[in-house]
Amino acid sequence: MEGTKIHYKPSFKKNPDIIAALPDMGNVAGLCQKLLLDKIETKLFAEIFAFWPNFVTYKNGLINYTQSSYKFYANTKYNIIIFTGDFNPSDPRRLYEICYEVVKIAKLFNVKTLYSFGASLKPVNTIEKVVYVAVNKINLIKSLENQKIQVLDDVGQITGFNGLILGIAQEHNLDGICILGEIDNPNVIQPKTAQEILKVLLRILNLSFIDLSDLDEEEKRKKFMEQQMNYFSNIIRENNLPGIK
Description:
CATH class of the largest domain: Alpha Beta
Helix content: 25-40%
Radius of gyration: 20 Å
Distance between the termini: 39 Å
Strand content: 15-25%
Number of domains: 2
CATH architecture of the largest domain: 3-Layer(aba) Sandwich
Strand order of the largest sheet: 1-3-6-7-2-8-10-9
Number of strands: 10
């Protein structure tokens, strides 16, 4: 890891918040970050270059190579930094390196609070999907409870970047809040859960005016695809046809 390339230093009116998350189960975090970048005008100001892809493409014998990167975007009107990328590193060393680079940027701009979010598998015996938060400092709990936001109260793990970043932030005395939304299928895109997470985040940041209706359309498409899959599954089962591999 060669560190972060800063293209320019944005000037914030006050200490910014950073929203840092990478794609996870059901692509919940990916959906959240995409909507925020679509709805909030931002400018790319820094990148962490990734060791990906491990190939080049070619057309008519001419090689094309574009290195992937994790990106930092800034909005100086709302004092927000958004960090995102195309994938969550599976290699622990790379994961730690990226987390440390994100916290370095947060410290450079005197970030007030770091927010991450992600998916949590819903318990089998429950119907309603819940959104809750985990924090890296005990003093954050009271203010969240005052906003009627449910705090995670059991024991468990938050894996990958979206959890580990709060630990690295804690190590550097940076306030961190992770908003988790329950899902029932990690292999299916989860727009509704992403929408519920963003409702909580935007309420905390006083940005509730941002339109989240794009995720309603994503949810409709998801349900249509599920109906189609169920329809074909029933035909296969009723007619004793071999399953699709």
